[in-house]
Amino acid sequence: AKDMIFMGFETLPWACRFTDWGKKATILGTKGSILAAVTPPANTPKAFAMLQGLLGVFPNCTYSPNNLGISLRNPGAQIHPGVMYGRWCPEQWDGKPVDEKPLFYQGVEEFSEGVLMGLTNEVQAIRKKMEEMVPGLDL
Question: Rounded to two decimals, what is the model's pTM?
Answer without folding.
Answer: 0.76
